[in-house]
Amino acid sequence: RRQRTIRLMYGGLAGAAAALIAILTLSCLLITHSRNQALDAEARAVSLLGQKERENYYSLIGLAANNLLLQHVRQADAILGQTPAALRGPEWRLLRSLSNPLRSELRGHTDSVAALAYSPDGKYLISGGRDGQVRIWDGGNGRLIHLLNFMVPIQRVKCSADGKLALAVRSDRFLSLIDLERGEVTRTLSSPRASINAAEFLPDGRHLLFGTGDGQLTLIDLHDHSIRVEFKGHQGVISAICCSPDGKIAVTAGWDRMIKIWNLPDGTLRREFVAHGKYIDALALAPRCGIIAS
Residue 84, preceding bond cis, omega within 30 degrees? Predict the structure, then answer.
């Protein structure tokens, strides 16, 4: 089924079971400490909600934590829902984030969402869809800020390191640069030979590297719009590009099943190898150890 809804999830649930148990054990200790403090305070002053209600609240918190330790996520979420809203504190929010990681659903695309990107500071979430729309959302509350309609399917979206620009790779051979604050297209790039299929901002925020359907790679200076270097990258479509954090190395992949590592900005080839039996559509480069995933 085509996915038209963007789901924002808490990342904590994706951790290993051991990490989850460690977090929950710590939270239980904090809960016990908070409970003791609350009970001491109740002994000195009469609470408006009453000591019995507080004790019941902390009992439910402990029961929810135990259910999470046993991987009974739905039961834990249901128990947390029974707690009085007026008493919910940090311990409740912690357990809630682990039992119900779905924060919100962002609706608006009328066809499947093909690409997503956050700005580095988390201020913006950019989505691109098969419906031709690029939507810019508030990264915190999910509110729609800007909507751009290109009338052709969007293949990829990326955000610059300074969080000011986004790029949208379109299915009509073009690439659009978007000012995120104003929600406007600042420039449209194209290749005279073939469609643009993959692109990546360099970390310096000044340069953009894109690859085309005929295997060509082009490095663009975004300040003066000049072409820094062009070089033959692959036999056929270039489908994925990523760069090292210092911007001195680019890694590309294509439908020729090859992964290639390049020096930037001169575009000299450092290494190449066959990675898969079929074409490659995604790449990631670990920033510290230099491991390439494809």
Answer: no
Cα-trace Rg, the chain:
25
What is the DSSP code string of 32-99? HHHHHHHHHHHHHS--SS-HHHHHHHHHHHHHHHHHHHTT-HHHHHHHHTTS-GGG--HHHHHHHHHH
Q: What is the pLDDT of residue 49?
A: 54
How does residue 52 score in pLDDT terms, banded at 50, 70 and 90? confident
The closest of 94, 97, 133, 99 to 113, measured between CA atoms, is 133
Residue 18: name the closest of 65, 71, 75 by CA: 71
Residue 87 has pLDDT above 60, yes or no: yes
Classified as helix, coil or strand, 164 is coil
Q: CA-CA-CA-CA torsion for 263, 211, 132, 189, nearest 10 degrees?
A: 90
pLDDT recorded at residue 85: 85
How confident is the model at residue 140, as a pLDDT? 78
Please identify which residue in the block is written with the tokens 């779905």: 102
Q: Tell me how many degrees the CA angle 41-42-43 measures, rounded to the nearest 5.
A: 90
CA-angle at 130, arms to 171 and 208, nearest 5°: 45
Quick: pLDDT tens for 174-220: 999 999 999 999 999 888 778 888 999 999 988 999 998 898 999 99
**3-class secondary-structure state, position 176:** strand
How far apart (Å, rounded) are the C-alpha atoms in residues 19 and 15? 6
